[in-house]
Design goal:
Blueprint lengths: L1 E4 L8 E4 L6 E8 L1 H7 L17 E5 L5 E5 L14 E2 L6 E3 L6 H6 L2 H13 L7 E4 L5 H12 L4 E6 L7 E2 L3 H5 L4 E6 L3 H7 L3 E9 L12 H4 L5 E4 L7 H16 L7 E5 L3 H9 L5 E5 L1
Parallel strand pairs: 8-9, 8-11, 9-10, 11-12, 12-13, 14-15
Antiparallel strand pairs: 1-2, 3-4, 3-6, 3-15, 4-5, 5-7
Helix pairs in contact: 3-4, 3-8
Length: 293
């Protein structure tokens, strides 16, 4: 059977012939910042022994033809991942889907969908009256967080990015957007200096949900912002969720994505173009990159 392997940290995966296995037939594998971090050797959890098959999440077909979502069991992080035509997977990492959806869309709604949805709906508990700021709003997680906030009835939702454009506001223009009231919720997939800067526009008792560090692993937060406004800073990691929590969150966001209430652009690449897809993800795609098999 065919698949792809990372043979050297920092290099994109190459298509190879792998030993045949009798397992779930993989139809789509989503690429995520996590896959790039593991494949470049910068993920805090390390990487599987080289060479390894990447891919932390996938959609495939069980023996009876049912569509399943695959995630967990250390796949793509501590063990070989899902970027192969067939994969043997433990039962805990397999979630049978209650509806038939496009496999590429099903897998696109996974890691990014859970992160964006849980941050907004579970952690920040966004609702009417909230003024929400979403950082990194051109990325997949940010796009989902913006739409989730709107679905939950937020009074105001502002997506921000460094350069503006694509329906977002520049980070240095937030004072004019929020005025003296400030934002009550910030969804933060980027951390670093940008988060430290925007806290000046936070309302008192604002909730900040942090779930990524694309702008840096450290953020020089000012005491006057955090203490003076009595901010609530909440962390989120999908790896900290139980299997039951992860499955429930995934099915919630999949329902919104499959019905079009949350729109998520998906760029699909065939397996033969796996290296190209990897580089697209590395460069910051603005949506979801999916490899189809």
């Amino acid at each position: 059977m065919r698949g792809a392997q990372v043979t050297e940290l920092g290099s994109p995966p190459q298509v190879v012939d792998l030993e045949d296995v009798d397992g779930i037939r993989i139809e789509a594998v989503a690429l995520n910042p996590l896959d790039i971090a593991v494949g470049t050797g910068v993920f805090y959890g390390g990487h599987p022994p080289l060479p390894y098959v990447p891919g932390c999440e996938a959609a495939g077909r069980a023996d009876d033809g049912a569509l399943v979502y695959l995630f967990g069991d250390g796949r793509g992080v501590a063990k070989p991942g899902f970027l192969a035509e067939r994969v043997v997977v433990s039962g805990e990492a397999v979630l049978r889907l209650p509806v038939e959806v496009d496999p590429a869309l099903a897998v696109a709604a996974g890691i990014a969908g859970i992160a964006g949805w849980v941050a907004v709906a579970w952690k920040a508990k966004v609702g009417p009256g909230d003024r929400v700021l979403v950082l990194g709003a051109t990325g997949a997680v940010g796009r989902i967080a913006v739409q989730a906030s709107e679905l939950l009835g937020a009074t105001m939702v502002v997506g921000a990015s460094r350069g503006g454009g694509a329906g977002t506001v520049r980070l240095d223009g937030l004072a004019d957007v929020f005025g003296p009231e400030g934002f009550t919720v910030c969804i933060d997939p980027i951390w670093g200096q940008p988060l430290a800067d925007v806290l000046a526009y936070a309302a008192k008792h604002a909730r900040v949900v942090h779930l990524g560090q694309s702008a840096g692993a450290e953020a020089p937060l000012r005491s006057a912002d955090v203490r003076g406004k009595e901010l609530q800073i909440l962390g989120h990691s999908s790896f900290a969720m139980t299997v039951e929590e992860g499955n429930r969150a995934y099915l919630e966001v999949l329902d919104h994505v499959s019905t079009g209430r949350i729109a998520l652009p998906v760029a699909c690449y065939p397996l033969d173009r796996a290296a190209e897809a990897w580089e697209r993800q590395r460069s910051g795609p603005g949506g979801k990159v999916v490899i189809t098999l």
